[in-house]
Write a structure and sequence with these properties.
alpha/beta; TIM Barrel; 10-stranded mixed sheet; 11 helices; 12 strands; binds ligand PBG; Delta-aminolevulinic acid dehydratase; ALAD; porphyrin biosynthesis
């Protein structure tokens, strides 16, 4: 035998030397759910260790995460029913608690990268990402709503706008309104290949945003398709995206890989709520080792080609590496 691959695995030093993929806290983006009631802290049952944070409590939580080395955050609003409407006007309302807390966060922690969520579902009585009429999602009528929401978020101080809605043409609509209002330095992270996935269940519990009727298959992608992800990515690049995202991550590593091989823009993987719940639940039962499994899944996303990873594991990962 001239080739014995095991020689390159014989000690930790050599294994370190030949390691092909690295993963560190700087790659991670931590999602936080914010609620209107300032002192709320309520755990999401299907996501152990993840909380809905009130607008006051979230500041302390971010501070704690920064001390652990986390620099990137994405905020999702838990919108009370009383603010929900068919067209989600609250999303750009000047009294919107989500916008106000973003301003406060950026004032207190100017160095972090703060990302938003753009879609109608948290604000909509229908629980869909676009405007619904007679059971149909109205694409073009939704675009100005998404654009106005994005502008309000840019004005509030978000560094990165995160459209998760999957309407056609929304990246262009958002880029145009931002540029027209001198927000040419506000970035867009496009949820380019977002699949109609069963793995979003715990997130919809967290936000109480399950669609009132129907499903999201007329706008989110079919899990059977990969070429279509390339089309979505081409459009998002042309329309002005700064990052391309694949969501979910674990069952879609091939999609992350094909985009990272074919596009110059950075690729983000969204390690979604259901993926987090699986690892947590199995480790709570003692069936998986949490730390090892969590790190292996995150590493696999980096190996597939993701630059950044949105993950609910970020704080656990940061804690583990602080030690
Ligand atoms: C909605 C949105 C969803 C997620 C992020 N933004 C749910 C959905 O599309 O129904 C899911 C994230 C997760 O599961 O962690 N615009």
């Amino acid at each position: 035998m001239y080739q014995r691959p095991r020689r390159n695995r014989k000690s930790a030093a050599i294994r370190g030397m030949v390691e092909e993929t690295n993963l560190s806290v700087s790659h991670l983006i931590y999602p936080l759910f914010v609620a209107e009631n300032p002192n709320e802290k309520s755990e999401i049952i299907s996501m152990p260790g993840i909380f809905r944070w009130g607008t006051e409590k979230v500041l302390a939580e971010i501070e704690e995460c920064i001390e652990l080395g986390i620099q990137n955050f994405v905020l999702f609003p838990v919108v009370p029913e009383k603010y929900k409407t068919k067209r989600g006007e609250y999303s750009a309302d000047e009294n919107n608690f989500y916008l106000k807390v973003a301003t406060e966060i950026k004032k207190r922690f100017p160095e972090i990268a703060l990302m938003s969520d753009v879609a109608l579902d948290p604000y909509s009585t229908d629980g869909h990402d676009g405007i619904v009429e007679n059971g149909i999602i109205l694409n073009d009528e939704t675009l100005p709503v998404l654009a106005n929401m994005s502008l309000a978020q840019a004005q509030a101080g978000f560094d990165i706008i995160g459209p998760s809605d999957m309407m056609d043409g929304r990246i262009r609509a958002i880029r145009e309104i931002l540029d027209d209002n001198s927000y040419d330095q506000t970035s867009i992270m496009a949820y380019s290949a977002k699949y109609a996935s069963a793995f979003y269940g715990p997130f919809r519990d967290a936000l109480d945003s399950t669609p009132k009727s129907g499903d999201k298959k007329s706008y989110q992608m079919n899990p059977a398709n990969k070429k279509e992800a390339i089309l979505e990515a081409i459009l998002d690049v042309e329309e002005g995206a700064d990052f391309l995202m694949v969501k979910p991550a674990l069952s879609y590593l091939d999609v992350i890989h094909v985009l990272s091989e074919n596009f110059v823009l950075p690729i983000t993987a969204y390690n979604v709520s259901g993926e987090y719940a699986m690892v947590k639940a199995a480790s709570e039962k003692g069936w998986l080792n949490y730390d090892a499994t969590m790190q292996e899944t995150l590493l696999s996303m980096r190996r597939a080609g993701a630059n950044a990873i949105l993950t609910y594991h970020a704080k656990d990962f940061a804690q583990l590496h602080k030690k």
